Amino acid sequence: MKKALIGVVAAALVAGGAAVFLGTGTAAAPESTFVLLDGSKKTTTDLKGKVTLVNFWATSCTTCVAEMPHIVETYDKYKSRGYETLAVAMSYDPPSYVVNYAETRKLPFPVAIDNTGAVAKAWGDVQITPTTYIVNKRGEIVKRYVGQPDFAELHQLIERLLAEG
User: Fold this and answer.
1) pTM for the full model?
2) What's the rounded Cα separation, in Å, for the pair 44 and 164?
3) How many angstroms separate the CA atoms of 109 and 90, rounded?
4) What's the rounded Cα separation, in Å, for the pair 132 and 51?
5) Contacts of 8 (CB under 8 A, 6+ apart)
6) What is the C-alpha separation between 105 and 14, in angstroms, rounded?
7) Does the residue 83 lie in any domain?
8) Is position 136 within any domain?
9) Which CATH number fits the domain that encloses residue 35?
10) What is the pLDDT of residues 17-72, one digit of tens each?
11) DSSP result, 7-47
């Protein structure tokens, strides 16, 4: 009984840790082409010069839907200072659902659909949503969040990155 309880506690700690995992260090953001809802394309190179939040999400993900208003607020707060947001819908998300969600909520930033799953694979084989990356002005990933970010901490990071030359 005691071993089973320890196993349950250990599993809960691992799951909790996964939800707040913060990657450390920097690595170049993978070369990717994002196909936006309007059919246009954006590449990883286009992100350089801005601090960018890249959010892998799905309309069927309750945490993703719950955090989206905070992502919109963050975008609105920093967009005039060189901050960008790119929401990447997972390959299993029906495109019509993504379009409907983006239009009805009037998402103010680019939304891409990863039809083939190639973008999620390039960005570390993303399978858990939401997974969010913060990319600095040099195009380097400086933070990864699996699960909803702590938005107060995220805002501090964005402020710091925007202040960098």
Assistant:
1) 0.84
2) 20
3) 17
4) 13
5) none
6) 34
7) yes
8) yes
9) 3.40.30.10
10) 333 334 446 799 999 999 999 999 999 999 999 999 999 999 999 999 999 999 99
11) HHHHHHHHHHHHHT-B--S-EEPPP-EEEBTTS-EEEHHHH
